[in-house]
Write a structure and sequence with these properties.
mainly beta, 7-stranded antiparallel β-sheet, 7 helices, 22 strands
Length: 323
């Protein structure tokens, strides 16, 4: 197999901004785009291959055809033939709703779906004015939670962070969160579209209606524990991998390269995804296939890839993730 690029799936939202189109160098007329789904196997939103002999096939078809050769033998068995990750770019002109996602057990019981654990990598922060919310800042009970929803004070119980490019947040299922105005982020998550909307700032949609809240569903999905700091602490480093997140659903590192580097995946039974956030590079696999990658692009390398040679064009920064 060979490295795969996919056509972006653009999502217009009431909170969307203007950064995704120029960042990804897309030739389209949409001015406000909240999300670009880079790699998706969500039913109804399956990514379509943009390059090579399989161009035009969607990701579901690719997994059915190539099975473990694409996703890894253990992943193919574990996830029942579904691609396990959803990759997005998210651009927030306004605050997103306060929300929470159920874990696997609850999501399967209620929706016959996987839960949603995810992570955020901040690409840009609107000239230093971006913020986001992650986790509870103080202890509350489920009863207090319901009352705070009713009296519009739930934000008083949430940890709120001013963010800068390079900031990372890990969001296990059950953690209340919200992407704030000014954030431009890369999101890595389980393949699930189950979201419980907790609070939406009494916002109205284009038809003048407030959006549905899921107070009862969310109450049982929330992890009510409190942590001192919800940010992921790491030290950036040039020309070597830096570990960011390792959990049962994905392992993610960041690379900032000015020198050529060879990656060894010979012992890894998984696909590998690169999400380029800055600069450009050329990537050659062990079979001699070469692909160019630049900021705004996401590339899926199949599980048959045993090594990759990355040659930066000046400097390149990208996230590496696999299962």
């Amino acid at each position: 197999m060979y490295p795969l690029k996919f056509k972006p799936i653009l999502k217009s939202t009431i909170w969307g901004g203007e950064k995704i189109i120029p960042f990804k160098q897309l030739d389209c007329k949409q001015e406000l785009v909240g999300e670009s789904w880079e790699i998706s196997d969500v039913p109804g939103d399956e990514s379509v291959v943009a390059n090579g002999v399989d161009a035009g096939k969607n990701l579901t078809q690719m997994v059915q055809e190539y099975k473990g050769a694409l996703v890894g033998e253990s992943n193919y068995t574990r996830f029942g033939g579904k691609f396990p990750l959803l990759i997005k770019f998210i651009d927030a002109r306004d605050d997103l709703s306060i929300q929470v996602h159920p874990d696997d057990e609850l999501a399967m019981k209620r929706h016959n779906s996987m839960g949603k654990t995810e992570m955020w990598y901040v690409i840009d922060n609107a000239e230093g004015k971006a913020h986001l919310r992650s986790g509870l800042s103080k202890e509350i009970t489920p009863q207090q939670y319901e009352q705070m929803i009713a009296d519009n004070t739930i934000c008083d119980a949430l940890a709120d962070y001013a963010v800068n490019p390079g900031d990372v947040f890990f969001l296990p299922a059950g953690r209340i969160h919200s992407i704030g105005a000014g954030c431009f982020i890369a999101e890595i998550q389980q393949t699930s579209n189950i979201t419980y909307r907790i609070y939406d700032f009494n916002r109205k949609d284009k038809d003048g209606n407030t959006r549905e809240l899921h107070t009862e569903l969310s109450k049982d999905a929330i992890d009510y524990s409190v942590e001192k700091d919800y940010r992921t602490d790491y030290t950036p480093c040039l020309n070597k991998p830096v570990d960011l997140v390792s959990c049962p659903y994905f392992t993610t590192s960041i690379y900032n390269l000015t020198e050529q580097m060879t990656m060894d995946y010979s012992e890894l039974d998984s696909f590998v995804i690169y999400i380029c956030t800055e600069g450009a590079c050329k990537v050659k696999d062990n079979e001699g296939n070469e692909i160019e990658m630049k900021a705004g692009e996401t590339v899926l390398f199949p599980a048959t890839t045993s090594s990759l040679e990355v040659v930066p064009e000046g400097e390149v920064k990208f996230l590496e993730t696999y299962v």
